[in-house]
Specification:
Arc Repressor Mutant, subunit A; single chain; about 60% helix; Rossmann fold; 5-stranded parallel β-sheet; 3 domains; about 260 residues; alpha/beta
């Protein structure tokens, strides 16, 4: 069952959306609800999220910042903005970040349900395209494997990732950069490297963060931005989960 995460700091709205969508998609969606972007990021670090339905204007961490963090954790997650702000700059930023949809709260329940249905359909279509894409793009070379071109593309992509750790490294962005279908890219990356693109990105960010903590005077906030995280709090939780220590503890231990 897929997971949909609702994020809105207005409790009545968030709870209402949860009840609406849990009923509309009973048996299809595991509908979760969080009342802040920080709580949403913590939930997303603990379980996969297929669809994010989020407000934009929230205290401390905006929905736009949450979107960027979600892309790092779950590159295939589809993001739907549900907001009371019909601001052009918000909409443009949402589109720049490859949001699936941008709808206003006043548009009604039917529009929300229809948009989630479309997101589910998009996810299913992406999975169905996988088999066809594998046939068209990944016919085994003599001796098997992805072939010399596949190796070259993935190696080049790894170099790109290492040089752009502070930028958007979502699966869709990497696919655009490498001119490959996201499903194909994901499969071939793991076939060639033995790990997923997301794991490679996390390992690279961890190694760079550890190096900066040991060998520089940069603050934790500065390092978190260098790693592409929306907030230093989120970076600290991510770092602790991977190393068992906070960044400050790691720095003290390695001085």
């Amino acid at each position: 069952m897929r997971t949909l995460l609702i994020v809105d700091d207005e409790l009545l709205i968030a709870d209402g959306l949860r009840d609406l969508l849990a009923q509309a998609f009973d048996g299809q969606l595991n509908v979760l609800c969080r009342y802040s972007a920080a709580a949403a990021m913590q939930a997303a670090a603990e379980l996969p999220v297929d669809i994010l339905l989020t407000d934009i204007n929230m205290p401390n961490i905006s929905g736009l910042e949450l979107h960027r963090s979600m892309q790092a954790l779950h590159p295939a997650c589809l993001v739907i903005y549900l907001t009371g702000y019909s601001d052009f700059d918000y909409a443009r930023t949402a589109l720049d970040q490859h949001a699936f949809a941008y709808i206003l709260k006043g548009e009604g329940d039917d529009v929300i349900i229809s948009t989630v249905e479309q997101a589910l359909q998009r996810l299913s279509e992406t999975e169905k395209e996988s088999a066809q894409t594998q046939k068209e793009q990944a016919e085994p070379e003599p001796g098997g494997g992805a072939g010399d071109e596949g190796f070259a593309r993935i190696r080049f992509l790894q170099e790109y990732i290492l040089d752009h750790l502070n930028e958007d490294l979502s699966l869709n962005r990497l696919a655009e950069f490498s001119h490959l279908h996201p499903v194909y890219l994901s499969r071939v990356f793991k076939e060639i490297t033995g790990i997923t693109a997301g794991d490679f990105i996390n390992q690279a960010r961890q190694e760079k963060a550890e190096g900066l903590l040991k060998g520089s005077r940069m603050t934790v906030l500065e390092i978190s931005r260098e790693m592409g995280f929306a907030t230093d709090n989120y970076f600290c939780r991510w770092f602790r989960k991977r190393t068992g220590m906070s960044p400050e503890q790691y720095r003290r231990k390695n001085q």
